[in-house]
Design goal:
Elements: H1 3-19, E1 29-30, H2 33-45, E2 54-58, E3 62-64, E4 99-101, E5 103-112, H3 113-119, H4 125-147, H5 170-177, E6 182-183, E7 191-193, H6 202-211, E8 223-226, H7 228-242, H8 246-255, E9 258-259, E10 262-265, E11 275-278, E12 283-288, E13 293-299, E14 304-317, E15 323-326, E16 331-334, E17 341-345
Parallel strand pairs: 2-12, 6-15, 7-16, 8-10
Antiparallel strand pairs: 1-13, 3-4, 5-14, 8-11, 9-10, 11-15, 12-14, 13-14, 16-17
Length: 347
């Protein structure tokens, strides 16, 4: 490491040690709750969609799912004048066997000396390094949320590049615990999107997913989470028909922000052929208080600096009735020109 960048890195270590009230950050240390909350918020704020997800600090490793909104109706009336009845408060949420269980997740990253040396020229040296770390952590949390299918003791990044074995994600929670809200194809078949298929267009698919959510479970903040490949396919159909008509292109630019009457977004790391309807706040990440540990060291043996952080996490959907999705692995596009199966298929 260049001597100038080394000075700046050591100054960063000193400032972090002072901030966390520890002797040094080159040794693993526990982050106290107020600082842990600030650190968790910094990660969440680094990606727009993650800011809409519910990140919940809990004290216990295991516990009941936390209900952040009332998914069931509470209005009613009781004839207390009869002397035989009394008002009974309605418990919100379905608490039957809905629990969370956190597992340690390690977010360990190495930055090569060549990168650190290049960044020494920037006045925001500290925030540049920390922002990269926080942004990567946030992306990994979304990867786990969308693709997580297992919680292995020893994860394998080569076999599971989408972090499928780090923890159980939101999609897994839905198709495992609410299969009626998870649309999948029959064995050996595909879900066809396009003229003559299961859905003629994305609007039909989005509305069908919304129809699976009972009205009493809707918050009014539902969104269509849609993969970029599906958006590109939908856009291609419109531009093929109206690409030379400026007024129509302008209308489509407005319509493409909504599908099935709901606002739409393509979250970071979301499956390219995925479609999900829910209130983003219904997606939860539980982080256990007191579990966050951190270390920032210089490792000259490998010509890099290393940041180690671990925390106990769990990914759950708060109200399973209020979410619906298609199996993104089953999606197949129908060719507009021939009406037959197109060459493009979902992953």
């Amino acid at each position: 490491m260049n001597f100038l960048s080394k000075d700046r890195f050591e100054a960063l270590q000193t400032r972090l040690a002072k901030s966390y009230n520890v002797r040094t950050v080159s040794e693993m240390f526990n982050v106290d709750v107020p600082k842990a909350v600030a650190l968790i918020n910094a990660v969440q704020q680094s990606i727009a969609f993650l800011q809409t997800v519910s990140v919940i600090n809990v004290t216990d490793t295991k516990g009941d799912i936390v209900t952040l909104h009332a998914p069931t109706s509470i209005a009613g009336r009781t004839d207390t004048g009869s002397g035989t009845k009394e008002r009974v408060a309605q418990v919100v949420g379905n608490k039957t066997a809905r629990t969370y269980e956190t597992a340690q997740t390690n977010y360990d990253i190495a930055l090569r000396y060549s990168d650190v040396d290049a960044w020494r020229r920037f006045s925001d040296y500290d925030s540049r390094i920390l922002s990269m770390i926080y942004h990567r952590m946030a992306l990994d949390q979304l990867l786990i949320g969308w693709y997580g299918k297992a919680c292995a003791k020893d994860t394998d990044r080569e076999t599971n590049p989408l972090l499928q074995d780090v923890n159980y994600g939101w999609m897994y929670d839905l198709y495992t615990n609410k299969p009626e809200n998870w649309i999948k194809a029959d064995s050996g078949q595909k879900l066809k999107l396009g003229a003559g298929g299961d859905w003629n267009n994305l609007d039909q698919l989005a509305y069908e997913l919304l129809s699976l959510i009972p009205e009493e479970n809707r918050t009014g903040n539902e969104m269509v989470l849609v993969g970029r490949r599906i958006v590109a396919w939908e856009s291609g159909k419109i531009f093929e028909a109206h690409g030379q008509t400026p007024s129509e292109k302008t209308k489509f630019s407005l319509l493409s922000k909504t599908y099935g009457g709901l606002p739409a977004t393509s979250p970071a790391c979301f499956p390219d052929t995925g479609v999900m309807v829910t209130d983003p706040a219904n997606l939860q990440i539980y982080i256990q208080e007191g579990s966050l540990r951190r270390q920032l060291v210089d490792n000259p043996k490998r010509d890099q600096i290393e940041h180690y952080q671990s925390q106990n996490e769990c990914y759950r959907i708060s109200d399973l009735d209020a979410a619906a999705a298609v199996n993104y692995e089953d999606i197949e596009f129908v060719s507009n020109s021939t009406g037959t199966d197109g060459a493009e298929q979902g992953a």
